[in-house]
Amino acid sequence: MIKVLFLDVDGVLTDGTITYDIYGREVKRFNVKDGYGIVRAINTGMDVVVVSGRISSQVEKRCRELGIKEVYQGVSDKLSFADRYLKEHSLTFEEAAAMGDDLPDLPLLKRVKVSGAPSDAVPQVKVLVDFVSRSPGGKGAVREFIDFLLNEPSNEK
Ligand SMILES: [Mg+2]
């Protein structure tokens, strides 16, 4: 049973576009359908953990809105991070899923029980994952992956 889901931000929870406002602040756009999927996952008892290589206050804000308590930014080595996180929570990679779109996500995607990527992930990631969504990043990819995880027969133990 999948108990924890690691989510990348840029290109997964967003379309990967990084926009700056006139004050030089980063502007990111999030998808409401993804948001509802995350709320649903949390309500079923799944631990949703957002892990980003970048740092953005907007990510904090959006995650707080959705009830995601675990938000880690500026993480360069996601596999080491996940390894530590799982140990601290007495969980294993067998109970973990992850969604990512680019090369920094690969080591973690290879290690988890169920891996996912948006339709516009880089080819090296897409060939390797268990699930490729029909939607691109920031446009419902996370929602599709969560629906897939929650409906997985092997996840209904
Ligand atoms: Mg990314």
Q: Assign a percent range to the helix content.
A: 25-40%
Bound molecule types: magnesium ion
CATH class division: Alpha Beta
Cα gyration radius (Å): 14 Å
Number of helices: 6
Strand percentage lies at: 15-25%
Spatial sequence of strands, sheet with the most strands: 5-4-1-6-7-8
How many separate domains? 1
How is the CATH topology named?
Rossmann fold
Extended strand count: 8
- End-to-end C-alpha gap: 6 Å
**Structural class estimated from helices and strands:** alpha/beta
- The ordered string of helix (H) and strand (E) elements is EEEHEHEHEHEHEH
Overall geometric form: globular
Largest sheet: 6 strands, parallel
CATH architecture: 3-Layer(aba) Sandwich
Instruction: Please tell me the overall pLDDT.
Output: 94
Low-confidence stretches: none
Could you name the CATH homologous superfamily? Answer: HAD superfamily/HAD-like
Written account of the structure:
With 157 residues, this protein is α/β, with parallel strands linked by helices. The protein has a single domain (4-155), classed as Rossmann fold. It is 34% helix and 18% strand. Helix 2 links the parallel strand 4 and strand 5 (70-73). It is globular. The chain starts with a strand and ends in a 6-residue tail after the last helix. The mean pLDDT is 94. Magnesium ion is lined by residues 8, 10-12, 101-102.
Distinctive features:
157 residues, alpha/beta, Rossmann fold, 6-stranded parallel sheet, two-stranded antiparallel sheet, 6 helices, 8 strands, 34% helix, 18% strand, globular, binds magnesium ion
